[in-house]
Design brief:
This protein has one domain. The protein has one helix and four strands. The longest helix has 9 residues. It is globular, with a radius of gyration of 10 Å. The protein binds zinc ion (ZN).
Length: 53
């Protein structure tokens, strides 16, 4: 799973269909980030089974 975080933001996203999925100016992490926040929308999509990676 790939995590993306917009630069100057503390929120990590991992669902490519998240409305806030960063497409430019982002940092990438290939493992679960140890710092920062996890996106609530991505969490909701994962719970609902609609998270696309
Ligand atoms: Zn998100």
């Amino acid at each position: 799973m790939t995590y993306r975080k917009k630069k100057n933001s503390d929120t990590w996203h991992w669902c490519t269909n998240c409305s806030k999925w960063p497409t430019s100016d982002y940092d990438t992490s290939y493992s679960k980030p140890s710092s920062g926040e996890l996106c609530n929308e991505c969490k909701a999509k994962q719970s609902a089974g609609t998270c696309k990676n």
